[in-house]
Design goal:
Number of domains: 1
CATH superfamily: MFS general substrate transporter like domains
Number of helices: 19
Distance between the termini: 21 Å
CATH topology: Growth Hormone, Chain: A
Order of helices and strands: EHHHHHHHHHHEHHHHHHHHH
Shape: globular
Strand content: under 5%
Structural class: mainly alpha
C-alpha cells in the first residue's frame, strides 16, 4: 500500500516548474472530460418530453431512465475503480472510462422501449464511474491546498458547460433530426477526449502538492480491503466530511431533479418549444453557472485566508439566498419575469461545487483520496441522482396529479425547499473543517 514517508512543512511545498506548466493543460483536459460526462447526463433532460411521447413513458419512468438506472451503477462501481486508481495509473482508467460512456450514450439513440433505454443508461453509468474520483485525486496532487478550491472550481465548470451543451445540442438536434440523433451527436466528443487524455496527459506524482514523498508497492488483497475500510472509517469519523457530504447530497437531490425534468416543466406549463428552451436554459446554465462555480471557488480560497470556516460558510450562505429565488421561478406564471429570479438562483446555486470537493480532498489522507472522492460520489449519486428525479416524477404523477400540466411545477417547487436543509449542513461543516485542517 502507498505510504507517506516524508512531508514538507506548511507553506514550504515546492512544485517543480514543469509540473506547473503541464498541470494547466491537464486540468483543461480533465475539465473537458467532466463537461462531456455532464453533456451525456443532462441531455436526457431536454429530450425527456419527446422520449416520453415516443416510447409512451410517464414521469416516474423518465426519472428512472435519467436518474436511478444511471446512478446505481455509476455510484457502486465508483468504489472498486477508485481503489484501483489509488494504486495504478489514474489517467489510463479515465481514458477507458470516457470511451465506454461515450459509446453507450450513442447506443441510447437505438432504444425502442423503456427496458432498452434503461440498459443503455446503465452502460453510461458504468463508464462514468471511472472518471470523477480519479480526476479529483490527480488535481489534488497537482495543486497545493491553498490553490485547491479554485482548481476544483475550474474542474467543476464541466457541470454548467456540460449542461449547457446538453440543452443546446438536445434542443436543436432533436427539433430538426429527432431525439435519437441527439444521442448520437452527444457521444462524439468523448471519443476524441479519450484519445487526448491517453496520449497527452501525464500521471502526477502522488502527494506532490502536499510536500509528501510516497512509496508505492503493489498492494495485497488484505491491504486493498484495509484501505477501503480506512476510507469509510475516515469519512464517518470526520465531522467536516460528514456535513459536506450531506450538504452535497441534498443539493444534488434538488439539482438532478430540476436538470432532468425542468425543461419538461417549461414546455408543459409555459408552452415554449424545445428548441427555444435549449437556447434559453443552455446559456444560463453554462455562462451564469460557470461564473457562479468559479466565484464559489475564488471566494472560498480568498476568505479562507482569514478563516478556514469560510470554505463551507460561503456555500451555506449561497444556499440560503438561492432557495427563495428558485421557489419564485417555479411559482411565477410570466416566464420572462420568472427568469429574473432564475439568473441569481443559478449563480448562487453553483457556489458549492469547487469548495465542497476541495474540502473532501484536503481533509482526506493522500493514500485514499480517490477512494474518499468515490465514497462521496457513491452517497451523493445513489441518493441524489438515483432518487432525486424519481422523487420529482413521483410527486408529479401521484401527489399533484390533480393539477394537470402544472403538476410538475409544484413537484419541482416542493423539492426546491430542500436547499435550506443543505445550507444548514454547510454552515455546520465550517467549524469542523477548520478544526481538522488545523490539527493536520
Amino acid at each position: 500500500m502507498a505510504e507517506a514517508v516524508g512531508a514538507a512543512p506548511a507553506g514550504a511545498v515546492n512544485i517543480p516548474a514543469d509540473v506547473k506548466r503541464h498541470r494547466t493543460y491537464a486540468l483543461i483536459i480533465l475539465t473537458l472530460i467532466y463537461m462531456s460526462s455532464h453533456l451525456d447526463r443532462s441531455i436526457v433532460g431536454i429530450l425527456a418530453q419527446p422520449i416520453k411521447e415516443d416510447l409512451g413513458l410517464n414521469d416516474k419512468q423518465i426519472g428512472i431512465v435519467g436518474g436511478f438506472a444511471f446512478a446505481m451503477f455509476y455510484a457502486t462501481l465508483g468504489i472498486p475503480l477508485a481503489l484501483l486508481a489509488d494504486r495504478t495509473n489514474r489517467r489510463n482508467i479515465i481514458a477507458v472510462a470516457v470511451a465506454v460512456w461515450s459509446a453507450m450514450t450513442a447506443v441510447c439513440g437505438l432504444a425502442n422501449n423503456f427496458t432498452q433505454l434503461v440498459l443503455a443508461r446503465i452502460g453510461v453509468g458504468v463508464g462514468e464511474a471511472g472518471s470523477s474520483p480519479q480526476s479529483h485525486s490527480m488535481i489534488a496532487d497537482m495543486y497545493a491546498p491553498h490553490e485547491r478550491s479554485r482548481a476544483m472550481a475550474v474542474y467543476s465548470l464541466g457541470v454548467p458547460f456540460g449542461i449547457m451543451l446538453g440543452f443546446l445540442i438536445g434542443g436543436y438536434v432533436s427539433t430538426h433530426w429527432g431525439w435519437r440523433t441527439a444521442f448520437f451527436v452527444a457521444g462524439v466528443p468523448g471519443v476524441i477526449l479519450s484519445l487526448l487524455v491517453w496520449l497527452t496527459v501525464r500521471e502526477p506524482q502522488r502527494g506532490l502538492a502536499d510536500g509528501l514523498t510516497v512509496a508505492r508497492t503493489p498492494p495485497s488483497l488484505a491491504e486493498t480491503l484495509a484501505s477501503l475500510r480506512t476510507a469509510f472509517v475516515f469519512m464517518w469519523r470526520s465531522k467536516a466530511a460528514r456535513h459536506v457530504v450531506i450538504g452535497l447530497t441534498l443539493t444534488a437531490f434538488v439539482g438532478y431533479g430540476a436538470t432532468l425534468l425542468g425543461a419538461a416543466f417549461i414546455e408543459r406549463t409555459h408552452g415554449i418549444s424545445r428548441a427555444q428552451i435549449g437556447l434559453i436554459l443552455g446559456p444560463i446554465a453554462g455562462i451564469v453557472g460557470a461564473i457562479g462555480t468559479y466565484m464559489g471557488g475564488y471566494l472560498a480560497d480568498r476568505l479562507a485566508r482569514r478563516d478556514l470556516k469560510w470554505n463551507a460558510w460561503i456555500i451555506g450562505l449561497a444556499k440560503f439566498a438561492a432557495a427563495p429565488l428558485i421557489f419564485a421561478f417555479y411559482l411565477i406564471d410570466e416566464f420572462l419575469i420568472a427568469l429574473i429570479f432564475y439568473f441569481p438562483a443559478v449563480l448562487l446555486g453553483a457556489f458549492y461545487l469547487g469548495p465542497s470537493f476541495a474540502m473532501i480532498q484536503s481533509v482526506a489522507p493522500v493514500a485514499i483520496r480517490a477512494t474518499a472522492a468515490a465514497i462521496t460520489l457513491l452517497i451523493l449519486n445513489f441518493i441524489a441522482l438515483g432518487f432525486g428525479p424519481v422523487f420529482v416524477g413521483f410527486l408529479s404523477d401521484d401527489v399533484f396529479s390533480a393539477y394537470g400540466k402544472d403538476s410538475l411545477r409544484y413537484a419541482l417547487m416542493a423539492t426546491s425547499v430542500i436547499n435550506v436543509w443543505a445550507g444548514i449542513h454547510f454552515m455546520l461543516a465550517g467549524p469542523a473543517y477548520k478544526r481538522e485542517m488545523t490539527k493536520a
